[in-house]
Amino acid sequence: MKVGIGFDVHPLKKGIPLYLGGVKIPSDRGLKGHSDGDALLHAVIDALLGAAGKGDKGKYFPDTDPALKGISSVKLLAETMRITKAKVVNIDCIMFAEKPRLSKYYGKIQAKLAALLKLKKTAVSVKATRPEGLGLAGSGIGCFCACLIK
Ligand code: MG
Q1: What pTM did the predictor assign?
Q2: Going residue by residue through the chain (150 aa), what tens digit of pLDDT does each one get?
Q3: How many angstroms is it from 10 CA to the middle of ligand 1?
Q4: Which residues contact 108 (CB under 8 A, 6 or more apart)?
Q5: Which of 53, 61, 122, 132 lies in the 20 to 30 Å Cα band around 149?
């Protein structure tokens, strides 16, 4: 068994779609990034790579690669699973956002992550917390993921 941890944060920008965990969340602002900005999937990817001892996502998916511009992070996760060849046991995720309120999307995100990682929903934990105005995520959304692989 090996454990990994991943963290990512992206800034929110008006007028672009918001993706978290591969789920499109209704919002007037989305996460800006070289890919689709899905900070939760990026945290999952880094946790998987970390557990497998394969470095970080910048090694495989550099934000200077024009081929990755606007790419769905679902594809990056699929490629990560191919790279690590890891059997994931479970993941635990925390999203860190002042806005929007994310609690009503836990179920959808959990189901999507379970499908992407070929896990039962009981092996996927999704939760969120607000930084209480302290600005810890700035005007963005930060995400953490811990995962166990075997
Ligand atoms: Mg990222």
Answers
A1: 0.96
A2: 999 999 999 999 999 999 999 999 999 999 999 999 999 999 999 999 999 999 999 999 999 999 999 999 999 999 999 999 989 999 999 999 988 899 999 999 999 999 999 999 999 999 999 887 777 767 899 999 999 999
A3: 6
A4: 23
A5: 61
Query: CATH number of the domain that 56 lies in?
Result: 3.30.1330.50
- For the chain, the domain total comes to 1
CA of 40 to the centre of ligand 1 (A): 8
Domain span at 70: 2-149
CA of 104 to the centre of ligand 1 (A): 23
Residue 135, φ and ψ in degrees, nearest 5: 75, 15
